[in-house]
Amino acid sequence: xxxxxxxxxxxxxxxxxxxxxxxxxxxxxxxxxxxxxxxxxxxxxxxxxxxxxxxxxxxxxxxxxxxxxxxxxxxxxxxxxxxxxxxxxxxxxxxxxxxxxxxxxxxxxxxxxxxxxxxxxxxxxxxxxxxxxxxxxxxxxxxxxxxxxxxxxxxxxx
Length: 158
Known about the structure:
By secondary structure, this protein is an alpha+beta fold. The protein contains 4 helices and 8 strands, in the order E-H-H-E-E-E-H-E-H-E-E-E. Strands 6-7-5-4-3-2-1-8 form an 8-stranded mixed β-sheet. A hairpin with a 5-residue loop joins strand 2 (49-54) and strand 3. The longest helix has 15 residues, at 91-105. Residues 147-158 have low confidence and may be disordered.
């Protein structure tokens, strides 16, 4: 498995991954493709980053990033999706840890996210705590710069 930081071009295979996500009723990757194409969101703001995961055969199997949270002073996990065939293999956790590690290194104190109920156990296993009754976020995680996570990240060429 390889986790890559996406910097200038979206990874090959993302349209197919977006179709898989849409087939499951998730539109977040369609939003990612549209926002990237029109320049609305390129994950280049302070503390922001986008990561892609490839399996041992080099297939794109997941993507997710961190942006500024529009509602509070925090960073927000965004556009996370792992292909169905790659779930429960550790790829999603590695992808999330890369984003958490990046957020921690950027000096953020908190991370928030909004996840579907089916993903609650995944995020809670990573230490995120539910935020009951909040329409903007389902979970939050307090992070500290002095507790880095062990993650290997490669830089995308280009």
